[in-house]
Design brief:
The protein is mainly β. The chain is built from 2 helices and 22 strands. It folds into 2 domains: 166 residues, Immunoglobulin-like; 157 residues, Immunoglobulin-like (Sandwich). Strands 2, 5, 6, 9, 10 and 11 form a 6-stranded mixed β-sheet that branches.
């Protein structure tokens, strides 16, 4: 029967989620049935980023007249911090300590640096923060346990208001049918896309409208899909420089059974728990978000795609920029090109005034997150509670490194970073 029945790391903060500069505290928990002689008990805290993927390439072997497949593994890494503490003993070869029988808790504490990126997990790369405890035993295999925690690097949308301006985009797409050497005009469709803001936080809804006016008698608009998408770049340096691109859909809505000639489609996409844009302070992984609108048409014509960059932050805007609303009169003027300047609603600028009941940024948003013991901030003219912290859909199957054995306590556990989610009230419940 093993003498070590419990060996784990417990963080004092529920959910083990921290922001940059925070102090991390916790306990190493031990329960042993027999007295143990050890050189020491050490704690290792580490923050690092890694990228890793493999590619295959088929090549011709002229000497043997056959094709061979070569596999190349690309990788890169960077370290943000590594702390090592002696909890028990000194880990010197000739000095031993005794851990008596029973239940033990050893507290630990360390402070996170300020300039470190948010936690991030992906099959091609990650930014991960871990704590590892090691019982160094003389002439025996060491006992090890490991736990991961989340770090969220703040991204305040109020400090990036120039990137949060709403979208008002117009486009005309012409349909053509090629017959021999001639292009037969089949009409066109006019589109106008409105998105009130380009800056959001998790828990917030992205409300967008797409107005279309179809002048084609042979091609019809069959459906309109709106997608929140993620784009990631991974930069490898070994064995040579290489960039890996990965795009994925986070959420989407689709509207079909549309009117033939004209109509308006609205979409509402709730931003799920997700890491903030850019992964600031990480030089080997880039993270971006975009809102893509796909207009599906009949026949053999390709669908029309329009994409708009989004900024996902951790502190919401106090006063969101908004794009003007498009009515039927404006939509008709898109075709004729006759639109009086007096009818156009100006695009709000980043320096728009704060709402009457909204606090100034330098007074209410001096911290990275809304403190849990303070009332919620206002991102529009509505009061919202402070954020909760919820798991991201991107998770690691295990936190075991390639050089670790399968016998490290906790290393085979699944880990999903947690990010702040603002619990906005339903739109029907908002104060007018």
């Amino acid at each position: 029967m093993p003498s070590l029945t419990t060996f784990r790391i417990d963080f004092d903060r529920p959910g083990a989620t921290y922001t940059t500069g925070d102090t991390v505290t916790g306990k190493i928990v031990l329960d042993i049935l027999r007295e143990k002689k050890v050189r020491g008990l050490t704690l290792n805290a580490k923050g690092e980023a890694r990228v890793h993927w493999s590619e295959s390439e088929s090549r011709s072997n002229t000497s043997q007249s056959r094709r061979t497949t070569e596999h190349t593994t690309y990788r890169n890494s960077e370290e943000y911090f590594q702390f090592k503490y002696n909890i028990v003993g000194t880990n010197k070869p000739n000095v031993q300590e005794q851990i008596p029988v029973g239940f033990h808790m050893y507290p630990f504490t360390f402070q996170l640096p300020n300039n470190i990126p948010s936690s991030f997990e992906h099959s091609f790369g990650r930014v991960r923060y871990t704590v590892k405890a090691v019982i160094d035993r003389p002439w025996k295999f060491n006992h090890e346990c490991k736990a991961a925690f989340t770090v969220v690097s703040p991204l305040d949308l109020n400090e990036n208001r120039e990137k949060c301006i709403g979208v008002e985009d117009e486009a005309t797409h012409k349909f053509c049918c090629f017959c021999l050497f001639f292009c037969i005009n089949q009409g066109s469709v006019n589109l106008r896309v409105n998105v009130p803001s380009s800056g959001y936080v998790s828990g917030q809804s992205i409300i967008s409208t797409v107005d279309y006016l179809n002048s084609s008698h042979t091609v019809s608009v069959t459906a309109i899909t709106t997608k929140l998408e993620r784009s990631v770049k991974f930069y490898a340096s070994l064995p040579s420089k290489k960039v890996k691109f990965a795009e994925s859909e986070i959420k989407s809505t689709k509207s079909s059974s549309l009117q033939a000639s004209r109509g308006q489609v609205s979409s509402d996409i709730l931003v799920p728990p997700t890491p903030p844009s850019n992964l600031q302070y990480c030089s080997i992984i880039d993270l971006d978000y975009k809102l893509s609108v796909y207009v599906h048409v009949s026949g053999l014509h390709c669908k029309i795609k329009k994409s708009y960059p989004l900024l996902i932050g951790t502190v919401p805007l106090y006063c969101q920029p908004s794009a003007p609303y498009l009515d039927e009169t404006d939509l008709a003027r898109m075709i004729t090109g006759k639109e009086a300047a007096s009818t156009r609603i100006p695009m709000p600028m980043p320096n728009a005034p704060y709402p009457v009941d909204g606090p100034p940024h330098d007074q209410a948003a001096s911290s990275s997150f809304v403190p849990l013991n303070q009332p919620g901030i206002s991102s529009t003219s509505y009061d919202i509670p402070p954020p909760s912290y919820e798991e991201c859909v991107l998770a690691a199957a295990t936190i075991r490194d390639h050089d670790e054995s399968n016998y490290v306590f906790g290393a085979n556990d699944r880990f999903a970073p947690k990010y702040p989610v603002f619990n906005y009230p339903p739109r029907s419940d908002m104060k007018r």
